Amino acid sequence: MGTDQGGRAGLGASPGAGGLPGPADPWGPLGPTLHRSRPCRRPRPRLRLLALLTLAGAALAAGPQAAALGHPAHTSPPAAGDYRFEGTGTSGAPRPGQAPLLAPGTYTDTIDPGQTRWYAVRLDAVSTADLSVTAAPRPGAAADFGDGLELKLITTGTYGYTCANRSAHFQQDEGAMNLTGAVSRIPSEKHEGDCDRAGRYLLAVHRTAAAGSDPARWPVELVYGTEPPLPAGTVPAAARTDYGPPPAPVTGAPKDITGGTGFNDATRLDTGVWRDRIGPGRIRYYKVRLGWGQQLTYSAEFANDPALADTASGADPTFVGTTLYAPGRLLVHDASDGRDNRLYDGSPVSVGLGTVPVTWTNRWVDDSAAHEVRQAGDYWIAVGLGPGTPHLPADTEVGFVLRVRVSGQELAGPQYRAPAVGGRAGAAGKGAAGGSTGTPAAVGSSAGAKAADAGASASGPVGAEVRGVTGKDWIAAGGGGAVALAGLAVAALVRRIRTRTDRGGI
């Protein structure tokens, strides 16, 4: 799923009710297309539809865990207001000149259909800044394909330069789910860009809404964080844009867990097999820590559900999907050729993603699967079930198994030839491990030399796309190819999933 991708629930710009209003925005609308400060790979059409998942989530804190997945389903807690917000209340201004100045931190606000909220931040000339916005509408509320959030980060002064655009649209009309979009200011490699200067910057957040869509005011959560440059004289390891050979599937008996309602209460996981349940229109959140040089591969395997599978053959299927977020709540694109969204009619199905190794210099590359995998820290897994399940009562849940693997030896830092944590210096992991041996980040080239300059190592796009061995078979391998869920007898269903055009499936 993608913050700048189309697809059923993907974060993608699409013609909606909108863009930023012309008169109030001298810099023009976000427009129907997502623009980035660097070229981006053309999105794969259906795989990004869970951008709604790409948005912070409204997951239900489920009730008592059942011993088995799938049927029978059990009752969930009340649906309204699931997302657990944190932060200080603020109020975005209707005009740029009135924007409140935010310090790094977490804030809460609201936004109406068609409304634009303005916020201001003060940035230095060398730090990277990430600003994310999560909306938490009522799950299942009326929604259209182009409904969602549009973010724009711009400079102030005589000329207003657009530093970053992102759109987070539902890309489906089954019903509302939580959305998250994020923009970043990454100082350019040569420190000569229009967005490299210290000063006041503006964040515009616009809500698009079609006629007949949810008229309610949405609560939103804003997170503003900064990342300092590397210390003076530090030479970072070269970028890692390769996924590598797929790791072995994680096996074993699943442990029962309950995912969080969003980023703030996400359930912490490590390598292992986990079991959870989810209701229509819900998103479950989990967090996994990745160190320098490490990468993540995971799959969510949905069970056979007779309540869905036994419906009339003419009934439309819903969708299941997953989204992965990096520190800063940045959308991470799949590097493993996995599937982040699929139609779901009650038959067993699996979705999942894989990342490249965490490398500081990835911020310089043009590969969308690597660009956001640039900080060690918590990565969030979001797993969701579409709200369009007319034959499944709203207070019931579907079971799924989550297989998580963290691969690679953790390194002591982002620098070239960083020692392995608890291991020898310069050690590189095998297969999917992300060692930092080899060449430093463009030693002798403009890219690497600038990164080692006196603290001004923040970057701009340098492009280099290297695709490694694909890993899509990893997702199904954990289930024996048929997605056989542990502890669950999966019945083979004869009914075939009927595909549809761009309804917004994961």
Question: Could you walk me through the main structural features you see in this protein, from its secondary elements to its overall organization?
Answer:
It is a single chain. The chain has 3 helices and 21 strands. The protein is flat and about 60 Å long. It has 506 residues and is an all-beta fold.
Give a brief outline of the structure.
This protein is mostly beta strands and 506 residues long. The chain is built from three helices and 21 strands.
Secondary-structure element order, N to C: EEEEEEEEEEEEEEEHEEEEEEHH
Strand content: 25-35%
Q: Which consecutive residue ranges, at least 5 long each, have pLDDT under 50?
A: 1-80, 424-439, 442-506
How many β-strands, per DSSP? 21
Helix/strand/pairing category: mainly beta
Q: Report the C-alpha radius of gyration, rounded.
A: 22 Å
Shape: flat
Distance between termini?
Answer: 8 Å
Describe the biggest sheet? 6 strands, mixed
Helical proportion?
under 10%
Number of helices: 3
- Give the rounded overall mean pLDDT: 74
Keywords summarizing the entry:
506 residues; flat; single chain; disordered N terminus; 21 strands
Strand and helix layout:
Layout lengths: L87 E2 L11 E2 L2 E7 L4 E8 L4 E8 L12 E8 L6 E8 L9 E7 L13 E10 L9 E10 L27 E2 L10 E3 L2 E7 L4 E8 L4 E8 L3 H4 L8 E9 L3 E3 L8 E4 L4 E6 L22 E9 L12 E10 L38 H6 L21 H5 L29
Parallel strand pairs: 1-3, 2-4, 11-13, 12-14
Antiparallel strand pairs: 3-10, 4-9, 5-8, 5-10, 6-7, 6-9, 13-21, 14-20, 15-19, 15-21, 16-17, 16-18, 16-20
